[in-house]
């Protein structure tokens, strides 16, 4: 029976959805459409300013203007950031989730420890690793000196700063991926492992032919979250290097051009559209590839 009754009561669910739908349109869908429109204009971030459509001029400026080399470098950095974070973060998270799923003593404590960086916030994480990577008195530099006789500038290094930002990003969000994998692992029926053990399967064979196919939906979710999160990251870069030392990404460029640039909204809007299309491309490819491995039980 329909739980909301008959007559006008049948429309109660639709009425309840009006407020969240309105909020979504105002704060998400509407600005997204305006961003696409602005990408074809010369609009400025000034109250009352007029604008006109300029066609594809903003897109041409992104890739063929005098500073287009910086744009290409930002795109390359974004792709590197996305690939490394997605692969390493999910690989480490899956490894830790498998270990914790073995019902270790104090497993709830380990879950809390690995998930803690997720709730700390970007400012706190940047402060922590800023002190850890202090080139003068930081403990990591002292450890480098003792073990390897080597010292680094960390977030002040042109060659290594981007790698350390990738490390901090993985450290911060790995716990989130771990919990998703752990939820998937705990949903795998135990009798499948018992049947595999009777058939003489090894631990690796059990993981490859039983565990991994059944946790493929968790893997799909983590892949999507990692790709979207990595491609959209700018806050940790802003808090650590502020885009210096060859650490700029597309998301950081959008932020800089919008809030700290020349007040032109057309160029960062075009860059946002390009960023969205790249994210969409990788998300579609990732979903198609991972869905092939999903198994319903």
Commentary on this structure:
This protein has helices at residues 12-38, 57-64, 68-100, 107-120, 122-132, 139-148, 161-186, 190-198, 203-214, 216-231, 235-240, 250-259, 266-291. The longest helix is centred in the first third of the chain and has 33 residues, at 68-100. The two termini are 29 Å apart. The chain is an all-alpha fold and 297 residues long. It has one domain: Orthogonal Bundle (MetI-like fold). Helix 2 packs across helix 13, helix 4 crosses helix 7 and helix 7 packs antiparallel against helix 10. Helix content is 70%, strand content 0%.
Topology:
Blueprint: H1 12-38, H2 57-64, H3 68-100, H4 107-120, H5 122-132, H6 139-148, H7 161-186, H8 190-198, H9 203-214, H10 216-231, H11 235-240, H12 250-259, H13 266-291
Helix pairs in contact: 1-13, 2-3, 2-13, 3-7, 3-10, 4-7, 7-10, 10-13, 12-13
Q: Summarize this, please?
A:
By secondary structure, the chain is mostly helical. It has a single domain, classed as Orthogonal Bundle (MetI-like fold), CATH 1.10.3720. The protein has 13 helices and no strands.
How much beta, percentage-wise?
under 5%
Biggest β-sheet strands, sense, barrel: none
Query: How many whole angstroms does the radius of gyration measure?
Result: 24 Å
Report the end-to-end length measured between terminal Cα atoms: 29 Å
What's the order of the H and E elements? HHHHHHHHHHHHH
The class by helix and strand makeup works out as mainly alpha
Q: What's the number of helices? A: 13
Shape-level CATH architecture:
Orthogonal Bundle
How many strand units?
Answer: 0
What characteristic shape results from the CA principal axes? globular
- Provide mean pLDDT, rounded: 83
